[in-house]
Amino acid sequence: MNNRLTQIGFSQRIRLEWLERTANLVLAGNDVASIYSALQELLEEKLSVGGEAQRGNREKAITILMKIWVRPPRDLHSLQHEGLELLSQLPREDHIAVHWGMAMAVYPFWGAVAAHVGRLLRLQGMAAASQVQRRVREQYGERETVYRATRRVLRSFVDWGVLKDTSGKGFYTAGLSLHIARVELIAWLAEALLYSRPNGSITLRAAFESPSLFPFRLRPISTEQLVAVSHRLDVLRQGLDQDLIMLRTESLQAAKGGGL
User: Fold this and answer.
1) pLDDT, tens digit, 9 for 90 and up, residues 97-144
2) What's the CATH code, domain 178-257?
3) Which of 65, 77, 101, 156 could bond 192 through an S-S bridge, CB–CB 3.0 to 4.6 Å?
4) What phi-psi label fits residue 48: left (phi over 0), alpha (psi between -120 and 50 degrees) or beta?
């Protein structure tokens, strides 16, 4: 898990429909080889057209898609299984929240960029790419790979409809704002958020208000409701309105193992 927190990984612009297709292939019971072939076919005319480079953009995108829904890190297997179950139950318009949560858990870089965007939107109603870039590079280092990855994540946000381009180049306003009321989905998103954080804990209030979840408005629920539907979440009482939610000990031990 610690390695995930310092790695970039999310180096391509990923469309929401590609993740939906990948998850559907898993839900249909396809094996890894079949899913890989299906994604090659899906992206053949969209990325690295005519190219056969071993690590071209198409291959990198497929790696991201498969790591999120086909072969996630070991400590995220339970999160993945429940995410797939949610996708099979929820209406299509709510699927974006599940894809967002899984992308954030597997690639904390996604959540980090989202957090900077969410804070800027909250502060000034608009997010400038230059401001996001500066804050992300302060966190991950002054590297060209960080710049490129941040730009591609921002464009993914636009593709997903959670950010909107403005008439000013490099300036974004908020797009989709989805109300999340289902307790099981709220608990699952809270768990995904914890996996993207260094210490695996957060106050309940901070979870509901997390800028990493800026496209979503979570219905306030109690910690009792939260842990009642998730056997992997625990609560530490710290006073009035200061309940700390965390991954249970066994989940933390698996996370610290960080196996892929």
Assistant:
1) 999 999 999 999 999 999 999 999 999 999 999 999 999 999 998 888
2) 1.10.10
3) 101
4) left
